[in-house]
Structure formats: structure tokens, C-alpha cells
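User: quick one, sequence for these C-alpha cells?
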């Protein structure tokens, strides 16, 4: 009987083996444009692009009253940021922010010594409150 289970487990593992996805090829003309774009947008979220675009639009509006050429340039840059944020939001691209919970990275190793000290401190505090 155990041999039968071992064969089934091996078969299931063989079927479920993970194959990494192959890299997609892009056309040369498009890849020349996309490569710098990906480098610029690696750590930026679409909402950050939108925020920069709104700030630049407001600054361009107020500066445009005194320096029309500079204000127009800022407004054009704001449109670029807004369109870039829209493109990233529509694409649904995940920007590379590490998963966080309560200000700590989820995938960082656990320091068990600190964990033990924290549990002991909480236990002592609970005991003091209970006995008081």
C-alpha cells in the first residue's frame, strides 16, 4: 500500500511541476521606447504619477501667469505624467513595492530572540495588571 501512495504522490508532483514563463519578445522599434519607460517607472505607482501630474498642472497654471513659456512647459509635462499614470493604471501593472504589514516587510526573516523578549514583556505586563 505505501508504495502505491508514493507513486501517486510522485505522479502528482510531476504533473504540478512549475515551469517558469518564457520572456516575451517585442519588436525592435517598440522595445527601444519601452525599455527606458520601464526603467523610469519601476518603483512608481499609477497614483503617484497622477499626484505628480496634478501638482505640476497647478504649478504650471500659477507660473504661467508670470512666465508663460515655462508654465506651458510645466503643463505639458503634467499632461505627460497624467497620461503615463493612466496608461499604468489601465495596464494593471504591478509596481515593485515589497509586501508590507504594520510597517514591516512580510518576507523578512523573523528574529526569534526579539519575539521571545516581546512575548515575555507582554506576559509580565499582563501579570502586573492582573495582580494589581
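Assistant:
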Amino acid at each position: 500500500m505505501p508504495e502505491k501512495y508514493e507513486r501517486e504522490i510522485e505522479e502528482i508532483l510531476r504533473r504540478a511541476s512549475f515551469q517558469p514563463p518564457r520572456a516575451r519578445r517585442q519588436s525592435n522599434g517598440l522595445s527601444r521606447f519601452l525599455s527606458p519607460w520601464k526603467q523610469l517607472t519601476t518603483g512608481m505607482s499609477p497614483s503617484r504619477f497622477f499626484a505628480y501630474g496634478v501638482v505640476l498642472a497647478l504649478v504650471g497654471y500659477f507660473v504661467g501667469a508670470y512666465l508663460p513659456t515655462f508654465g506651458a512647459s510645466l503643463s505639458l509635462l503634467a499632461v505627460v505624467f497624467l497620461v503615463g499614470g493612466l496608461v499604468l493604471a489601465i495596464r494593471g501593472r504591478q509596481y515593485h513595492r515589497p509586501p508590507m504589514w504594520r510597517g514591516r516587510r512580510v518576507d523578512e526573516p523573523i528574529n526569534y530572540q526579539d519575539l521571545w523578549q516581546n512575548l515575555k514583556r507582554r506576559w509580565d505586563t499582563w501579570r502586573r495588571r492582573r495582580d494589581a
